[in-house]
Automatic annotation (TrEMBL):
PANTHER family: CDP-DIACYLGLYCEROL--INOSITOL 3-PHOSPHATIDYLTRANSFERASE, PHOSPHATIDYLINOSITOL SYNTHASE. It is found in: Membrane. It comes from Cryptococcus amylolentus CBS 6039. This is CDP-diacylglycerol--inositol 3-phosphatidyltransferase. Belongs to the CDP-alcohol phosphatidyltransferase class-I family. Keywords: Lipid biosynthesis, Lipid metabolism, Magnesium, Membrane, Metal-binding, Phospholipid biosynthesis, Phospholipid metabolism, Signal, Transferase, Transmembrane, Transmembrane helix. Residues 1-23 form the signal peptide.
Length: 224
């Protein structure tokens, strides 16, 4: 990863694309299984975690942010999967509207799921490429003279000059990262909702089991 960014980018991208179609292929071939569903989620979490660990090393100022993202990603998906198994659900993607409209729409609309997952991974990949890519996108595009001589530029020369310089130096990974950041942020919100809702489900399961145990104990006491 630190020595072959181009190869890493290609392999990681291929992995993400295959992940987008493996579930559909399994359903089309009639080869779906609980093991496959869990394995798919585990491999997804591991690949993302590896990338985030590397980003934490090359962007040390944001290492706590990346570690927090890893923690949220693992914990929210693990507890969601466990709550699905505890309630006897056939799939972790089986979410009803009464549990969460956000999760229901996220898991039941394949296009929404693809967009959020793809943009989330693409944002992190762009941060990875940004560490190596230094060629500006707009360096050869001339700045309009009207902009430099406008009243705004005359009134705020440092502001306009800074913006012009920033635009001329921006790279394409930075552009794509800016475009995908809102969706990536939305994905983290979904992870948070997923963690919260799954926690409530597991608490409900615990309460129901304890209530059933108390009732069974009361029946045994009466029987004596």
């Amino acid at each position: 990863m630190p020595y072959h960014p181009k190869a890493c980018f290609v392999l990681y991208s291929v992995s993400c694309l295959l992940d987008a179609v493996d579930g559909q292929a399994a359903r089309a071939l009639g080869q779906t299984s609980k093991f496959g569903a869990v394995l798919d989620m585990v491999t997804d979490r591991c690949t993302t975690a590896c990338l985030l660990c590397f980003l934490a090393s090359v962007y040390p100022a944001y290492s706590l942010v990346f570690m927090g993202l890893i923690t949220l990603d693992f914990s929210s998906h693990y507890i969601h999967m466990y709550s699905s198994l505890a309630t006897g659900s056939s799939s972790h993607k089986t979410v009803t509207q009464d549990v969460s409209r956000i999760l229901w729409y996220y898991y039941n609309d394949s296009r929404t799921l693809f967009v959020f997952c793809f943009a989330n991974e693409l944002f992190f990949v762009c941060l990875y490429l940004n560490y190596y890519w230094t060629s500006p996108v707009f360096s050869s595009i001339p700045i309009p003279t009207s902009l430099l001589t406008s009243d705004l530029a005359i009134a705020h020369p440092k502001l306009i000059g800074g913006l012009v310089q920033a635009v001329k130096n921006v790279t394409w990974p930075q552009v794509v990262a800016l475009l995908t950041f809102p969706i990536c942020a939305g994905k983290q919100i979904i992870n948070g909702v997923q963690f919260w809702k799954a926690s409530k489900i597991l608490v409900g399961v615990d309460l129901a089991e304890r209530q059933a145990a108390r009732e069974a104990k009361a029946l045994n006491t009466r029987g004596r």
